[in-house]
């Protein structure tokens, strides 16, 4: 029991670090605001409406009673735990501020568990981390006394690939097909972010949206529904295979060759695998969307 509690604290620590980091990044860029607004007097209007603490911040799409901090916090929480409720318009966030809700879902909503799915997304990352750590140090990959074998790793990677393919393939199709791309209200990289967010939110079963995109048509009604089916049911198959395989294994007592999964080192490794497997999978599309939009915004271009 004590060992299991220590395992739980390691996972909780990793989740907490990712959660706090996401919130502060979102808040930082929202508090900085859009440098192009000053010439239109928007900064002064935001300052008079919400107080000196918001001076220069991005109040577009936010309620004055919540302000920037609570809006950034709510956006982080709702995409960490697949809630879908919003208290501000994610589409009006700054490029990198809006990237955080998008990235949270891309990571699989593993921070504190998705609604209706619990911790299984994080358990996939744990399986990969234990396996990679075992290869690096030459120790037996185990978790909670169960040996992690090749079948478990294959199913974990299948889970990751299904999620990525659903988002990236449908987004790529929608971004070049005239009957889909024409439904986007904003051009350039922001329009791409709106398309990607739609499929990320649908596959991740989140419910929030960037907006600025008309989805009530045959293409989006069909493909977003397909993304929901993939995210809700197809991804469950490899996860159930992992669960069934682990259930048949006997608990092995820890030995000197067992890699400890309750240490700060494991927390660092777990976060590293989450960022490498989750974030870098979507880094190209993030580079074409919010990241390039951030640099264009600083050069005076808005969408």
Largest sheet: 2 strands, antiparallel
Elements, N to C (H/E): HHHHHEEHHHHHHH
Strand content: under 5%
Radius of gyration, whole Å: 21 Å
How many β-strand stretches?
2
Arithmetic mean pLDDT: 86
Structural class comes to mainly alpha
So how many helices? 12
Write out the strand line-up for the largest beta sheet, numbering strands in chain order.
1-2
Unreliable residue stretches: 44-48, 50-54
Shape: globular
What is the first-to-last residue Cα distance?
54 Å
Helix content: 55-70%
- Whole-number tally of structural domains: 1
Q: Any chance you could write out the topology, listing elements then pairs?
A:
Layout: H1 2-32, H2 42-50, H3 67-80, H4 95-106, H5 120-137, E1 142-143, E2 146-147, H6 150-176, H7 178-181, H8 188-203, H9 218-234, H10 236-247, H11 264-279, H12 283-298
Antiparallel strand pairs: 1-2
Helix pairs in contact: 1-3, 1-4, 1-11, 3-4, 4-8, 4-12, 5-6, 5-11, 6-8, 6-9, 6-10, 8-9, 8-12
Question: Would you kindly provide a written description of the structure presented here, covering whatever features stand out?
Answer:
Strands 1-2 form a two-stranded antiparallel ribbon. It has 303 residues and is mainly α. Residues 44-48 and 50-54 have low confidence and may be disordered. Helix 4 (95-106) runs parallel beside helix 8. The protein has helices spanning 2-32, 42-50, 67-80, 95-106, 120-137, 150-176, 178-181, 188-203, 218-234, 236-247, 264-279, 283-298, and strands spanning 142-143, 146-147.
Features:
303 residues; two-stranded antiparallel sheet
């Amino acid at each position: 029991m004590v060992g299991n509690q220590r395992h739980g604290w390691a996972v909780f620590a990793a989740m907490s670090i990712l959660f706090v980091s996401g919130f502060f990044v979102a808040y930082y860029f929202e508090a900085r605001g859009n440098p192009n607004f000053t010439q239109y007097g928007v900064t002064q209007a935001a300052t008079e409406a919400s107080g000196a603490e918001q001076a220069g911040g991005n109040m577009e799409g936010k309620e004055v009673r919540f302000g920037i901090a609570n809006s950034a916090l709510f956006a982080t929480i709702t995409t960490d735990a697949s809630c879908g409720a919003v208290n501000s318009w994610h589409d009006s966030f700054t490029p990198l501020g809006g990237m955080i809700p998008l990235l949270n879902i891309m990571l699989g909503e593993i921070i504190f568990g998705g609604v209706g799915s619990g911790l299984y997304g994080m358990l996939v990352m744990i399986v990969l981390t234990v396996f990679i750590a075992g290869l690096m140090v030459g120790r037996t990959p185990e978790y909670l006394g169960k040996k992690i074998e090749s079948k478990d790793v294959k199913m974990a990677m299948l889970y990751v690939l299904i999620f990525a393919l659903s988002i990236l393939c449908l987004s790529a199709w929608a971004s070049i097909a005239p009957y889909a791309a024409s439904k986007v209200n904003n051009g350039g990289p922001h329009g791409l972010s709106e398309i990607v967010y739609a499929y990320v939110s649908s596959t991740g079963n989140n419910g929030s949206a960037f907006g600025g995109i008309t989805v009530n048509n045959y293409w989006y009604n069909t493909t977003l529904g397909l993304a929901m089916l993939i995210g809700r049911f197809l991804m469950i198959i490899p996860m159930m295979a992992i669960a069934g395989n682990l259930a048949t294994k006997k608990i092995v007592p820890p030995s000197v060759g067992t890699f400890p999964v309750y240490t700060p080192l494991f927390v660092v490794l777990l976060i590293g695998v989450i960022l490498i497997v989750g974030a870098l999978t979507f880094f190209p599309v993030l580079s074409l969307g919010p990241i390039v939009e951030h640099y264009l915004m600083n050069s005076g271009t808005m969408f």
